[in-house]
Every structure is written in C-alpha cells, then in structure tokens.
Write a structure and sequence with these properties.
tRNA processing; A-sol_ELP1; Elp1; Elongator complex protein 1; 5-stranded mixed β-sheet; about 35% helix; nucleus
Length: about 1300
C-alpha cells in the first residue's frame, strides 16, 4: 500500500478531542472533547461548527461527551453525555435540542450502520447468562464437567478506561458490547440482535482489553488480548468462540491497544496503540491474505502535542483514514493498493515482487520461481517497519530501496554475491539446499539530508521514485495557505541521500508513475490533472497528448502506469500492467485482456461486454476477482493473485504469439519451437510467419532444432492453410487478403506441404542423411500425395548396406513407416515395387496370414517378368501400369489387353502404346468409337472410326452429328453412286432444315441432290434474301421473286413487328415489378434491424436458411431442415437437380428469389433484341430493294427505339453493388470457423453458399453488353 499525507491542519478547538465523526455528504469532520463539539473543513481547515455544553440549558456541569454520531438524513449530530443527556445538534442552524435522557447516565453510544437504531449503555450492569452451571447440559463430557473449577480470570489492567464499547455488524442485524464483568473484573463480549435479544457471550478469555470492532462483512469481531509473552489482536465469532489471532510487533508490556477499527470494505484493520508511558502513539494497518496477517503501514506519532487522540475510517472512501492529534492537529491519509515490482523490460530483470510485512520485505523473483504467499523466496529483515519499497530503473532494475518508518532509506544491490546481512533465505533454497536465485547485498542505510524543516508527523515524506542510477524523487506536503506538495530530487551519496533541488507543485500529489523507457515521471494531482517531470532539467510541465492536449482525468486514478495508447480503453478495469507489446488488464467480467500498444483505440472492440469473442487470442477467462501481480519481461508468464491470496501463472495466447514472432524474426527457430511445443501453438506458424524466410533458412532450422522427433513433430503438423489468416488472424493482421477457401492470396495456388517437405528433405540430406533418416521418411509420407514408394526405396537401400556401417537399420526404418502409414497400404506399395523381399519385410509387420500371402507371392515368382508385373498392377488396381506391361507381353495376350482396355476405359492410353498401322491399334480405335457412340458423342466417335478405317460407322456417326461436309467425304471413301449420294443428301437436307440450318440445307440440295428450286425455297424460308437472289439469277429463276420471296418478305416484317412489340411490353412490366420487389425487401430489412435482428421466418429473403449471425456468436436457426435438404439434394440425379434449379428462379410473385428471376428474364429479353441486329439489317435492305421503303423505315425506327429503351434501363436493373470491395465470407465446407468469427467481430455480413451462388450468378451480377459498334441501320432511311 502506498499513501500520501493528503491533509494537515491545526484546529485550535480540537486540542483535547476524543471522538470523531465524518459527514460523508460534504466531508466535514466533527470532533468532540469533554465539553465541546467542533466541525471543520478538512480541505481548508476552516471551522464550521462550534458547540459547547456550557451554553446548553439543562445540561449538568459534570457532563462530558461520551458519544458522537452524524445523522445524514436529519442533517444533525447526535451527542451523548455521561450524565444521560441525548442531544441533537442541527447542522444548519447550530441549535441544540435535548431529545432524551437516561437517569443512570450513559457510558457509550453506538448507532447502527444505517443510523436507524442506537444502542446506549449505562452504568447499571445486568447479568445475562444461561442459568446455573450445575443445571446446564454439558454434552458428551457429562455432569463431571460441572465439578471442574474454571480458572480465575484476571481483572483488567490499570490503564483500561473501563468504558464499554458498542460495535455493529455491517448489515445492522447484530451488535456487540464489550464491558467489564462486575464479578471477575475482566472484559467480555456479548452479542445482541437488533431487537435487543441476547445472542451469545464470549468464552472466558484472559487478557481481553478495551478495544472492540465488528468486521463490516460480519465474519469476525476484533479485540486485543494481552498474554504473558506477547500482545495479540484476537478474533471472536458471532457465537462468542475464538477464531484466530495475530501478534503485534511489540514486547508484552510495551504498549496498550487503545482502539481497533475496520475500514468500510473489511480489508484493512487499523490498530491504534500507545506506549505504556505515553511516550509515542502508533497507528498500524493490517491486511490478510492466505490466512496470514501483514503489517502494511506503520505510523509513529511522537508524544506530547503529537499524541493521537482519535482515529476513524472514512465511511465513503474505503482507504481514507482520519487522525486527530493532541495539539489539535488533524491528518488525513489516503492509501491505494499498489504492487512493488521491478521495472525492467529485458531478460536480465528478475521480475521481483516485494511484499511489505512490518519490518520485513518478502521478496520473490517471479522469473525463477512462483512462491505462494505468505511464503517467499527470501526475506529482507530491516531495523524498523517498512512503509514503501522502490525499485531502480533499468539497467539495474533489480536493485531496490526500502523506506523505513523513520524516513531512513535502505538500499540493496544485486552484485552476484551470496545472501549477506539482513537477507534470510527461505523458499529459494534455505537449510542446506542449493540456492535457486540471486540475492541482494546491503549497500547501506541512508538518512535524507538537505531537506528544509518539515512536519514530524508520519509519512510526511512519500511517493518515493527511483528515476536514475543515483537519483531518487519524493514529495512532501506544505501548509502555507492551502495544502500543496513539493517535489524533491535527491542524489544517493556515499553516506547520505542529499536533496539537490525542490520544486513546488500547484496542488497535492495523488500518485506518481515512472516510465522506464522514456525515464519520464508522471505526476497525478488531486484534481485529476497530469504533470510530467524530467529530473534532468527539473522541469514540471503539463502532460500533453500527441495532439498537444493536456491530460485531465475526471477522477484521480489510484493505479498508474505510463503507456501511450491514446484514449480510454475500458471502464471496467480492476488491475493492469504494461508489457513490452501489450497493455494487460483484468475486468469486472473476470477476463484478462491483452491490448496491443500499436493498435489505435478506435479499432478496438468494446471491452465492457464481458464476452470472450471466439478465436480471439487477446482475451481469456480468469477466476473471479483475479488481480495482475506482474508480467515477466521478455517472457510469456503473467502472474495473477486470487482473492484468497494464492498465486496463479497463466500464459496468455497473445503474449505467447508475440514471443514466437520475436524469436522467428531473429531466426531463433529452436527457441520458437520450444515455446510453441510447450504452449501447443500450431507448428505451421514456423513456416506461415514468413514463408520466404523460412524456406531460405531451412538448413538453419534443421541445425537449431536438431532433434529428429521435433522435426518429425513439425512435419506431421503441416496443413495447407495459412494459420496466420485462419487460426491466429488476431495476431497477424492479414485478414484483408482472406479468400473464401481460407488461404492467403500469396499462398493461393501453391502447394505448401509439398514445398516445405521437399525443402526440409534436401536440407536433411545435405546436413546428415544417416542421422535424419526418419525425418526424411516423414517428408515423403507427409506430402499431399504420399510418396510411399520412395520411402520404401530408402528402406530397400538400407537393407543392402553393410551391417558394420553406422546407420539406422532397415528394420527400424520400416517399423517407423508402419507407425506413420497403414500397414495394409504399405504392403500394397511394397508389392508395387516388384521387390518380393521388401514385400515379405512389410508383411511380417502386418496382421496378414502367411498362409495367404506366401502362396500368392510364390505364384507371382513363377510368371514371366512383364506378365508378373501386369498381374501385380492389376491386383493393386493400377490399371494404366498394368496396361503398359500387358502390351509388352506380345500379341498372344492381346485379348487380355483388350478386355482390360474395355473394362477400365483405357482406350486413349492403349492407342499411344500401339503403332497406328497395326491391327491392334485399329481394333482399339473402333472399340473406342463404339463407346463414344453409346455416349452420344457422335463427332468424336466418327474420328475414332476413321482411325480404325471403319467408313460405314464413320458415315453413320457424321450423319448423326449433322457434319454434312464429312458425310460426303465418307461417301467418296465408300464410292457411292450419284443416286445413292443424292438420296443421302435429300435426307440430310431435311434434317438440317429441321435444325434451322437453312444455308447448309440449301447447299446440300443444290450441290449434292441437284434440286435447285428446293434450294431457293429453303433460302427464302430461312430469310437468307441475298443468297436466294443469287441462286435465282444464277439459274434464271427470277419468277420466284414474285411467287415466294416478296410474300415471305412481308410476312417476316409483320412477324418481327409483333415480336418487338410483345418483347417491349413484357420488358416494361417486369422492370416495374422488379422495382416493387426491391422496395419491399428494403422495407423488410429496415424492420428487421429495428426489431433487433431476429429473423422472422425460415424462408426469409434477407438471410440464409441455414444459419444466422447475431451479435458475436454464430447460431443455427433451422439446422435439421437445412441439413436434410442438402443431404437429399446430394442424392438426386443431375436431371432432377437441374429441374430444381430452374424451379428455384420462378417468376411467381412472392417467390424467394423473384428479384433474381426477374433480372434473368430481363437479361434474356435484352440479349434477344440485341441479337436481331443482323436480321433487321438484312430485312430492311430487302424491303428497300423491293420498294417497301415505308415498311423498312418503320421497322428501323421501331427497332431503334426499343434498343434505346433497353440501353437506358440497364443501369436501373443492374445496380452497382460492388462499391464495398471488402471480402464477405461464405459459410460452407471451405470456410474456417476462425474467419467466420473474425468477420462477425468486424461487423461484416456472413452469407451462405446458397446466397453466394445466387448473388454471384453472372446473369444477376453482370449486365449484358449491347453490340453498339455493329452497323445495322440504312443511312438512306435516316435522312
């Protein structure tokens, strides 16, 4: 605990005050002497209230004040006198009113915590007991216990004031009274309910003294007990039984305990003591942890005018103490919890934590050991109680200075020497054990010189800070017109610490923090403003931000550390610590946060929600009430203290990843590997941190790691994904390049596992192939497609090496392979090497029956080599290899080869193994043609038939695929007669006309069937006006112009006009409907947002039917339905799936994807109209040629107007939705949970594969492009 002396005043009317009360509304302090009540402002010292009993009517002259209490609701003071008068002092009017009287007099008064009930004790004594001892029940010991005589109780000491004490429990349900029993003369404690019903009486304990205080939390009642050999603070339970104690650091008859009092949070017990001879007064602050009581602060007041007259805790501020001295002096102290620890940032710092315990400092170097309190590694024993411990700045950050109660400073330095004077070794290796850490050496005990005369009150010197190698800064409080602090810079000399310079501060100092990096001192004042002190130039200036703004806190902060991160981080912080890379803090939601010091505050997620975001490495849950003790510099350890006092060490993932990154940047692969292995970090990070650097330094990686098992561990952990994007994306800011598959853009298209395995293997071979043989085998096995055959070749080579050479045996290598790979698969691979000895070695490691595989191998040995390998490959289903070997077996095995080809569809491979002129080649080609014909691939089948010189089959296939040019090539090969060829031509022409191939049909009719008239009619029907006119004039048949061409021309104009009008009407109707649908969806989306984002139905257009993302978690909305839908779809036929796809985009109003269906239909209409350019151009030219100018002009004008309409409508239909180029992840099998969680944290929408498919369909996403560059208009009609 660290505390400044905040207030010091001399109040004349409070010289003999004995009672204190605090007005927690305005902070006014009220004190009462025997006959006077005084109220004063603790800030200015101005007296606000003066009341004397002499001026109050009907108050006896012998009356003295025995109780004082502030009543907040009545704005009054309640005063009790010894003669029995109860007075109420109105604080607004200062009028005194008598509200009651007790005839027998009042000895003590105690109000309940809520000021609802008052307990008053009188001079009369009432015996409250449990009847006669002889008639009481004594349990298992029987009635003999009644005959046992109790030990005689000693009466109270002479200095006891013999006044009773009243104390209430924090909830106001019980109160306790400590008084002197009239029979024994000893003190005892009685507990009563708030209704005045007696609850219990304390057991007879000898030596109980006058002090009494009930812990507000209700667990213990504290008092003091004098024993023959020690002086204790004893505790009683509500039932009157003893419950522990602790010993005061005084001799048995040295002091007397005047009072004990608890602070409002029940965490600190103040013990007010005095020397027996009234020489000095003491106020000690005790705290507890792990069932041990620590003396945290000691205040020693001199006798005489400095004698303590009253002590009380502030009811509002839990660590503020009010003290009244005998000469009317008032002091106010405010403490705050702080952890005294070394401030280094390198590995040389031992991360020492110092704990004050009276005249001892408990020291534990957390880097070397975590010792649970109240134990410690070693203890510094000092000549006087300790009030503060200060550590030196780097580079000697382990050195420390201890401030004693008398303002002397003891300095210890670490010089590599064994434990010396004042150092008691405990858990670090005492009693003959080996020492586990370094120990400090006492440099000297120094007094402060050169300081102007200051007050002699305790803690007049505070806020000690070690800022330089030999420079210490501290502060004092002066009282000129108002209290303010003075900052002093002192230098450590050979025999004393000399003050060199003093600098007054505009207000009182509330807290001080030192930055070991910039060596700047941050000074926080009582009003929350922040100053910056530079001890080199002795300048005190306002602390400014990077924007030049002065820092001002709303309220003073009790915990301080210097860290420039820019802005408010959290409002729910319970403890914090500055790390090299992070600001570490615990929150009220029982989480530990690691905030990067390089991340702007505006980019941080909210820290007040208390939820641990999934896959966020910067947050982890901790035990309720955990507080940060220290973060070990240049390490991953974070030490937390639990509410009960014990320590726990955690390794936050953010700190671990930072340590790994640092080691990898320095190419310290072994250190990084050790950290990753210890904390179970995915080994892929070794490569993914910087793939190029890792690949370039693979040899260094192997030499550093060295251990074969460790290299194998790295290889077996390899994954294709980039873990810096998926698993550790919070530590690596690479999310902007995330692709749907979860890979980095750089890694896209690369085979990471194969690349790393090949690089590692080459490095292992170059360094020591024999030593790293098992790792080499692992590189073959771990490839994307395991190269088990290569691994077995290595085993085969090992078997052939001489036995006397130092290497791993083939047996060991094979055993390792069997560990990595399924032995049955390995058996098949070994069999595929055609090495039967190797096969036998593998088979012996398997569970195969020798009666099965040995006869099989013996049969294979008898076969000819090529046929043997064919049999093996066929057995292993390696049909392509089997084909190569069966081909080499000769013509006598061709039928077996043909069966293999036909059965396993190996025609392409087989054709490459035979010469084209061979009969085998032609037979395989014809067989392949039959296969393709069955699959209705007639064009490819015809080619195979041509290769096999099967002209009839080729002709049939060409006819089936309507390749009329090749048809007549085949008729030439078959030497068809003219009549037979004409018959084929007529049949083919009809089929071509049926497929609207009018031009091809006309050519066939004219050139091969000899039917010119039919060819002209065909061209006219196909609207091929120019070609029809050519044939008419060529064969002198212009009569067809009047009979066929002109009627067909007019009919085409009418038909085209009708199609254009219908298309126009449909287009406008669908375009209007699309606008309505979009408006409805936008309305639904806004309603959904206003309602809190809850999806209204299973088939919502706005969200996927498989999942929904709300807040910070991914929750399934209809899991059973969606999973069954997609599982059924996977089993449907291709035809049914196509039907379902077409059905999904329905134009029915209100359908799920109506907007997409409308866009697709509009795109179809636009493409249809745009493709009519050539047809319209040809038709308009023909109309003008035959003097139908008006009709041609009308057609050209109508078509042009429709094209303009379509062109203007495209931007309205295809709205640009690609302005936000940010990647939106897609839920599906290729999406990682890390990327989903990250996108949810960053507020990006998450869509399903179905949504992705719909929105990324080219028809929906991209607008059709009009062929504006194509000429189709007639210039003559334009003019």
């Amino acid at each position: 605990m660290a505390a400044p002396l905040e207030k010091f005043h001399q109040v004349e009317n409070a010289r003999s005050a004995r009672h204190l009360a605090v007005n927690f509304d305005n902070g006014v302090i009220y004190c009462a002497s025997d006959r006077h009540v005084t109220g004063f402002d603790p800030v200015s010292g101005q007296v606000d209230l003066q009341v004397s009993l002499d001026s109050v009517e009907d108050v006896d002259r012998a009356a003295r004040v025995v109780g004082l209490h502030h009543l907040a609701e009545d704005c009054a003071l309640c005063v009790a006198t010894s003669t029995g008068d109860i007075l109420l002092v109105n604080l607004d009017t200062t009028q005194v009113e008598g509200v009651g009287s007790v005839a027998s007099g009042v000895t003590a008064m105690g109000w309940s915590p809520a000021s609802e009930i008052v307990c008053i004790t009188t001079a009369e004594f009432v015996q409250v007991g449990w009847g006669k001892k002889e008639t009481q029940f004594h349990g298992s010991v029987g009635k003999q216990a009644a005959q046992v005589k109790a030990e005689a109780m000693k009466p109270v000491t002479d200095w006891d004031d013999r006044c009773p004490r009243v104390t209430w429990r924090g909830d106001g349900m019980f109160f306790a009274i400590g008084s002197i029993h009239p029979d024994t003369g000893a003190r005892q404690v009685c507990v009563w309910s708030r209704e005045g019903v007696h609850h219990s009486t304390s057991e007879n304990v000898d030596g109980i003294e006058q002090s009494l205080a009930w812990r507000p939390s209700g667990s213990l009642i504290a008092t003091s007990q004098r024993r023959p050999n020690k002086h204790d603070i004893a505790f009683f339970e509500k039932n009157g039984l003893r419950h522990g104690e602790f010993t005061l650091p005084f001799k048995p008859d040295e002091i007397k305990v005047v009072e004990v009092c608890w602070n409002s949070s029940s965490t600190v017990l103040a013990v007010w003591c005095e020397d027996i001879d009234n020489k000095n007064s003491y106020v000690q602050l005790w705290t507890t942890g792990n069932y041990h009581w620590y003396l945290k602060q000691s205040l020693q007041f001199p006798g005489g005018e400095g004698h303590v007259r009253g002590v009380t805790w502030d009811p509002e501020h839990e660590f503020r103490l009010h003290v009244l001295a005998g000469a009317g002096g008032y002091l106010q102290y405010t403490w705050a919890w702080t952890t005294s620890n070394s401030q280094g940032r390198t590995g040389d710092d031992q991360a020492i934590v110092a704990v004050i315990d009276g005249a001892s400092v408990l020291m534990t170097p957390m880097r070397d050991m975590i010792v649970p309190p109240p134990m410690c590694a070693y203890k510094l024993e000092l000549p006087a109680p300790v009030n503060q411990v200060v550590f030196a700045p780097p580079p000697h950050s382990n050195d420390l200075a201890v401030v004693l109660i008398d303002n002397r400073i003891v300095i210890y330095r670490f010089e590599g020497k064994p434990a010396g004077e004042g150092v008691k070794v405990e858990a670090a290796g005492g009693n003959g054990f080996k020492h586990c850490c370094q120990f400090p050496t006492l440099q000297g005990i120094y007094s402060i010189t050169g300081l102007e005369e200051t007050s002699s009150y305790p803690l007049c010197l505070s806020h000690f800070t070690w800022v330089g190698d030999d420079v210490i800064v501290f502060s004092t409080v002066t009282m000129d017109t108002c209290p303010r602090s003075v900052l002093h810079k002192a230098r450590i000399g050979d025999s004393a610490i000399t003050v060199e310079r003093s600098c007054p501060v505009e207000s009182q100092i509330f807290g001080v923090a030192f930055d070991p990096n910039s060596l700047a001192v941050a000074i926080q004042l009582m009003d929350g403003s922040l100053l910056k002190y530079d001890h080199n130039d002795d300048m005190v200036l306002p602390w400014e931000t990077s924007k030049g703004e002065e820092v001002q806190f709303v309220v003073p902060c009790s915990s301080m550390a210097v860290c420039d991160i820019g802005g408010e981080i959290a409002s729910n912080c319970t403890s914090m610590m500055v790390h090299d890379e992070f600001l570490l803090l615990t929150t009220l939601q029982h989480t530990c946060r690691c905030i990067s010091r390089h991340t702007p505050v505006k980019d941080l997620p909210t820290l007040s929600d208390g939820k641990a975001h999934p896959f966020d490495e910067s947050i982890r849950r901790v035990e309720r009430g955990s507080q940060i003790v220290i973060s070990v510099p240049d390490d991953t350890k974070l030490v937390l203290q639990m509410p009960r006092g014990n320590l726990e060490t955690i390794h936050p993932r953010a700190l671990v990843l930072t340590a790994v990154r640092k080691q990898l940047d320095k190419l310290q692969f072994n250190e990084a590997f050790t950290i990753m292995r210890k904390h179970r970090i995915n080994m892929n990070l070794l490569n993914d941190h910087n793939p190029e650097v890792f690949t370039a330094n693979v040899g260094l990686f192997v030499r550093q790691v060295a251990n074969v098992n460790h290299i194998n561990l790295f290889l077996t952990d390899l994954l294709e994904e980039d873990v810096t994007v998926t698993m550790y994306t919070a530590a690596y800011e690479r999310n902007k390049s995330v692709l749907p598959g979860g890979l980095n853009t750089q890694e896209q298209g690369k085979n990471k596992i194969n690349t790393v395995c090949d690089a590692i293997r080459q490095a292992l071979i170059d360094i020591d192939e024999n030593q790293y043989l098992l790792s080499i085998l692992t590189t073959y096995v771990r490839k994307t497609k395991p190269e088990l055959e290569e691994a077995l070749h290595i085993v085969k080579k090992l078997r052939e090496l001489p036995v006397n050479l130092p290497h791993i045996s083939a047996e060991e290598a094979l055993k390792y392979l069997v560990f990595l790979v399924d032995v049955n698969e390995l058996y098949d691979i070994a069999l595929g090497t055609y090495d039967f000895n190797l096969v036998l070695m593998v088979a012996e490691k398997s569970q195969k029956d020798p009666k099965e595989y040995i006869p099989f191998l013996n049969d294979l040995r008898k076969l000819e080599t090529n046929y043997q390998r064919f049999t093996i490959d066929k057995h292993l289903k390696r049909y392509e290899k089997a084909l190569t070997h069966i081909v080499k077996c000769g013509p006598e095995h061709f039928q077996e080869c043909l069966s293999l080809v036909n059965e396993h569809k190996l025609h392409t491979q087989a054709l490459q193994l035979y010469p084209p002129s061979s009969s085998q080649y032609k037979e395989i080609a014809n067989g392949y043609g039959d296969v393709l014909a069955e699959k209705r691939r007639h064009d490819e089948a015809a080619i195979m038939y041509v290769k096999g010189e099967n002209w009839e089959a080729a002709l049939s296939s060409y006819l089936a695929c309507h390749q009329w040019q090749q048809v007549f090539c085949m008729t030439a090969h078959l030497k068809y007669s003219s009549d037979k060829e004409a018959e084929v031509a007529r049949k083919l022409a009809e089929e071509l006309k049926g497929r609207s191939r009018w031009g091809d049909a006309a050519v066939v009719q004219e050139q091969y069937a000899g039917e010119v008239e039919e060819a002209i009619v065909t061209l006219v029907q196909g609207s091929l006006w120019d070609e029809a006119l050519r044939l008419m004039h060529k064969y002198k048949r212009t009569d067809f112009i009047e009979t066929d061409l002109k009627p067909q021309l007019l009919e085409s104009v009418e038909g085209l006009h009708g199609n254009l009008e219908q298309t126009r009407n449909t287009f406008l109707k669908q375009k209007a409907r699309l606008a309505v649908v979009r408006q409805e969806k936008e309305k639904q989306r806004l309603e959904l947002i206003e309602s809190g984002g809850v999806c209204g139905g299973q088939d919502s257009d706005l969200f996927s039917d498989t999942s929904s993302a709300t807040g910070e978690s991914i929750q399934s909305s209809t899991p059973s339905t969606s999973s069954s839908v997609y599982s059924k779809m996977s089993g449907r036929s291709v035809k049914n799936r196509r039907k379902l796809e077409h059905k999904k985009w329905r134009l029915k109003e209100g359908s799920e994807f109506e907007d997409f269906a409308l866009i697709a239909s509009l795109a179809k209409s636009i493409k249809y109209v745009d493709d009519l350019r050539d047809e319209v151009r040809s038709l308009v030219r023909a109309l003008v040629m035959f003097h139908y100018d008006k009709r041609g002009e009308q057609l050209q004008r109508d078509y042009d107007a429709l094209l303009i309409l379509l062109d203007q409508s495209i931007p309205e239909i295809w709205i640009d939705e690609d302005k936000d180029t940010e990647f939106k992840p897609v839920l599906g099998p290729t999406m990682t949970a890390n990327a989903i969680a990250l996108s949810v944290q960053q507020g990006r929408s998450v869509q399903t594969a179905a949504d992705k498919e719909e929105t990324t369909d080219p028809v929906v996403r991209f607008a059709p492009v009009l062929q504006k560059e194509k000429r189709w208009k007639l210039y003559a009609l334009e003019t």
